[in-house]
Amino acid sequence: MTTSTALAALPWPVHTDRLTLRPATADDADATWRFRQRADVCRWLTRAHTAPDAHRAWFQAPDTLARTLVIERGGTIVGDLMVKIEDAWAQDEIAGRARGVQAELGWVLDPEYAGHGYATEAVREVLRLCFKDLGLRRVTAVCFADNEASWRLMERVGMRRELYTVRDSLHRSGQWLDGAGYALLADEWTG
C-alpha cells in the first residue's frame, strides 16, 4: 500500500470537534508558506526554504502532496501533517507481509494557533485514521530532542519514546543535535 493510494481511499474531509483535515492540494502551498517560513517554525523543519517559489515547488511535488494533509480551523489552514506509509523491516522470505504496515508522522502548526490543543487534536485524529481506517500496525515520529513541543505532543497522544540519540543529527546551525524517536502500536492505541 503506497501513501497516496491509502490516503486517497479514505473519505475526505475528516472533521474533529474543531478542525478539518484533508489532503493538501497545490493551491495550499502559499497558505503553508505563511507559517513554515517563520524562524521559530523552520528551525525544526527538514527544509527551510528561503523563498516562496522554492517552497511552492517542493510542496507541489507529487511526493509531497501524496503524503501531506492540511489542518483547517474555520476554513483557515493552521498547520499541516505528513503521513508517510512505510514498510517494516523483515527477513527476506517474509518481507511481503511487512509492506505498507506502518507510518511515519510529522506535523507543523502555525504558532499563531499554538496553545489551544489543535496539534494534539489533529494528531489524535491521524492516529485514528492510521489504526482504524488504514489498519496499520505501528506509527512513528522523530524530532530533534531540543524540540520539546514536538516530543511533548508525541507523549500527549500516547506515543512512547523508543530512541534517544546523542549528537546524531546535523542541524542547519552547524551543530550536531540529539534526536528523539517515538512510536505507538495499534494494540497500544486507546483511541
Automatic annotation (TrEMBL):
GO terms for molecular function: acyltransferase activity. Residues 19-187 form the N-acetyltransferase domain. The keyword Ligase does not apply. Keywords: Acyltransferase, Transferase. It holds the Pfam family Acetyltransf_3. It is an enzyme of class 2 (transferase). Its EC number is 2.3.-.-. This is GNAT family N-acetyltransferase. It comes from Actinoplanes subglobosus.
